[in-house]
């Protein structure tokens, strides 16, 4: 019994160790984006739509291939007999097994339908590429958000350490009568305020991780370890490359989808024209007579052809053709509007990226100056030549400068990410 308990405990330990190892993801930005492409639910649905479109294409193709159907019937006349030439002819039960094979020979609508199905398949593939691009963009943004919030937490924690040190020094000065208790209380309020802000930031970090988990398509128990720091990403950013890249608006997936809508409208016009042509099919029927009637003159085998020729539809086909032409005009106008919008958006995104890069440099310098001012005021306060109000003011200015710098970094990340998404470069 003891051996069984020990063995069970060992198996449980191994299972927990394996589970904990498999439930932790160590991800760089690129690894996170690729993981999202493989596991994001929206991308999965887009892939399923592609599979559905492929099956639909085969469904349409198979309609023009040989079709075979079988049917069985049984009839009982309930003892009925028929009088013919003075004779009574009994009508026994009858039963037949019928097999019918049909083959489409000519249908213009069939071939146009195949082309439309294949175009629809291509459009779902483009939609899947768009879903993958969106997943990469949103995952990268969530990754950046986690890093920015964590960096903000580091800054606040360091600021708290500085304030606590100043608070201890102030309390010592109060004890020896150099400073007043009011000064110590003011610094203590700053310490407590900073502690509350840090707790709030810690909650925001978990929210940021949950957003990243959602984009990655993992459950809430999955632990995520980011293997890149914000400084590494800032160093790796190549803004000159993206700013120097030319923009081909027709490579945009949304434009390609609208081009597909135009092609579908053209094919719908062709479909209406094809509906005016005849449809020809051949058939073969074989009937195996399980139970014959007394008077049976029907053949066992029949072969033939059938043609369906449209003659007059009171303008119905013409109306559908006109609707297709109108839809094509709408799609053309939408494509032109989108193209103009994207070209304007490209210029604006380039301007935004240049602007936030300039802001980042200014905020970095402002943070450096605010740090020097805070250190200088702190030294003066320790020597009794500055007041607690001066320390509080300098600390507030430093926090604002640090926060502005962090926000500027996030703005740079977002601006470059938006431009990369427009260029399909993510």
Task: Explain the overall architecture.
- With 426 residues, this protein is α+β, with helices and mostly antiparallel strands.
- It has 2 domains: 24-64 and 107-275 and 317-422, Outer membrane efflux proteins (OEP), CATH 1.20.1600; 66-105 and 278-309.
- Helices cover 69% and strands 14% of the residues.
- It contains 10 helices and 8 strands.
- It has helices at 2-22, 29-39, 41-62, 108-175, 181-216, 230-236, 239-243, 253-274, 316-382, 388-422, and strands at residues 24-27, 67-75, 81-84, 87-90, 94-106, 223-226, 279-291, 301-308.
- The strands form 3 sheets. A 4-stranded antiparallel sheet has the order 2-5-7-8, with no helix packed on it. A two-stranded parallel ribbon has the order 1-6. Strands 3-4 form a two-stranded antiparallel sheet.
- A hairpin with a 2-residue loop joins strand 3 (81-84) and strand 4.
- Helix 5 packs parallel to helix 10 and helix 8 (253-274) packs antiparallel against helix 9.
- The longest helix has 68 residues, at 108-175.
- The chain is elongated, with a radius of gyration of 38 Å.
- The model is unreliable at 1-9 and 11-21 (pLDDT under 50).
């Amino acid at each position: 019994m003891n051996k069984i308990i020990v063995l069970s405990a060992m198996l449980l330990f191994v299972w927990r160790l394996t589970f904990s190892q498999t439930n932790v993801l160590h991800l760089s930005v690129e690894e996170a984006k690729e993981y999202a492409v493989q596991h994001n639910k929206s991308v999965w649905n887009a892939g399923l739509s592609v599979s559905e479109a492929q099956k639909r294409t085969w469904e349409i193709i198979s309609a023009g291939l040989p079709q075979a159907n079988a049917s069985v019937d049984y009839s009982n006349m309930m003892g009925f007999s028929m009088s013919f030439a003075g004779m009574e002819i009994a009508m026994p039960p009858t039963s037949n097994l019928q097999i019918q094979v049909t083959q489409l020979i000519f249908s213009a609508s069939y071939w146009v339908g195949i082309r439309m199905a294949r175009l629809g398949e291509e459009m779902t593939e483009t939609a899947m590429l768009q879903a993958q691009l969106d997943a990469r963009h949103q995952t990268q943004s969530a990754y950046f958000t986690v890093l920015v919030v964590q960096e903000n937490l580091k800054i606040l924690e360091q600021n708290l350490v500085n304030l606590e040190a100043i608070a201890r020094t102030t309390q010592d000065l109060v004890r020896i009568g150099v400073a007043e208790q009011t000064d110590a209380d003011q610094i203590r309020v700053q310490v407590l305020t900073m502690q509350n802000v840090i707790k709030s930031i810690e909650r925001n970090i978990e929210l940021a991780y949950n957003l990243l988990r959602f984009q990655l398509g993992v459950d809430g128990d999955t632990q995520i370890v980011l293997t890149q720091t914000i400084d590494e990403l800032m160093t790796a950013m190549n803004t000159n490359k993206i700013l120097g890249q030319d923009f081909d608006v027709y490579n945009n997936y949304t434009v390609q989808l609208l081009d597909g809508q135009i092609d579908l409208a053209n094919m719908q016009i062709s479909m209406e024209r094809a509906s005016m042509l005849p449809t020809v099919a051949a058939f073969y029927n074989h009937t195996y007579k399980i139970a014959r009637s007394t008077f049976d003159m029907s053949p066992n085998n029949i072969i033939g052809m059938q043609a369906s020729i449209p003659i007059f539809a009171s303008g119905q086909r013409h109306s559908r053709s006109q609707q297709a032409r109108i839809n094509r005009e709408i799609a053309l106008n939408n494509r032109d509007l989108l193209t103009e919008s994207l070209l304007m958006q490209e210029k604006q995104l380039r301007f935004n990226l240049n602007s936030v890069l300039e802001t980042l440099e200014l905020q970095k310098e402002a943070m450096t100056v605010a740090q020097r001012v805070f250190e200088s005021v702190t030294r003066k306060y320790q020597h009794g030549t500055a007041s607690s109000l001066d320390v509080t003011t300098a600390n507030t200015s430093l926090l604002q400068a640090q926060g502005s710098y962090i926000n500027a970094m996030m703005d740079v990340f977002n601006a470059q990410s938006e431009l990369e998404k427009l260029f399909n470069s993510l």
